[in-house]
Amino acid sequence: MELSSVIVTTGSSVAFFRLVNAGINRLHIPESACRNSWKWRNISTSFVHSFITAIWAVLCFFRHPQMAEDLIETYSVFSHALVSFSIGYFIYDFLDMVCNQKLSQSWELLFHHIVVITCFGLSVVSCRYVGFAVVALLVEINSVFLHLRQMLRMASMAAGTLYRVNSIINLGTYVVFRINTLAWMTRWLVLNRDNVPLLAYTLGSVGMAIMTVMNIILFCRLLRSDFLKSSTREAKKEKM
Q1: Which alpha helices (H) appear in 64-139, and where do they start and end?
Q2: Best CA proximity match to 221, nearest among 169, 170, 152
Q3: Given pLDDT bands bounded at 50, 70 and 90, which one contains residue 203?
Q4: How many angstroms separate the CA atoms of 49 and 67, rounded?
Q5: 101 with 113: CB under 8 angstroms?
Q6: Which of 32-41, 80-89, 169-178, 214-223 has the lowest mean pLDDT?
Q7: How many angstroms separate the CA atoms of 70 and 129, rounded?
Q8: Measured between alpha carbons, how far is 75 from 170 in angstroms, rounded to an integer?
């Protein structure tokens, strides 16, 4: 793949998500979300990215199953375009947060985006580890429900059945597509240590170590917020 095609795909992706954000701004925003309309637009745009990417990542392995056997050298134009497309989203989201949110509130995500943009960027430019990047993007299956959870909370629908069902699916997909996928990627990297250059191995190891810590912290927050607190409230009601 030529560098020019990577730049065009990535640039088009940045422009696409800018248009998505502008389009969401024209749609009806729940009254309870109006006090922070930027966050509503940002999460809604992230939801669109997760929805597209989740389907795209699954199709990559469905259309090109050989990639699952060789995550280093084997890839397709379809999968290469997916990684370039996602780089564009992370660049867009990085700039959106820098311009509209305090650093103290967003530094974790900004650091996450820098790591992802760096790793994915090296992959699409070198045309190596594209399959590994697509595996990483399978976490977006969970992100669909994670972003939906945030949108329901902002729309004051956290007490409804939809929120409860989404919370269960969110936690289930979190374990399968975030924690398990990350564990599998770490194991793969260790087993293929001799086939991976030192720089790529170091970046991958550091990146996944950071992601592991962040994912465990977020999982504990989700579990406490959606299940442990609600259980505590129900127990108190029964005692009254």
Answers
A1: 77-100, 103-126, 130-137
A2: 170
A3: confident
A4: 23
A5: no
A6: 214-223
A7: 9
A8: 30
Torsions phi, psi for 229 (to 5 deg): -65, -40
Tokens representing residue 177 in the block: 């597509």
- From CA 239, how far away is CA 109, in angstroms rounded? 41
- Distance (Å, whole) CA 136 – CA 214: 15
Mean pLDDT confidence for 181-204: 84
Q: Which residues, 6 or more positions from 36, have their beta carbon under 8 angstroms from its beta carbon? A: 154
The single residue listed with the structure tokens 């595996």 is 135
Residue 77: pLDDT over 70: yes
Mean pLDDT taken over the chain: 88
What SS3 state is found at 146? helix
**Residue 56 host element (H or E):** helix 37-63
Q: Which of 110, 60, 112 is nearest to 84 (CA)?
A: 60
Residue type, 198: L
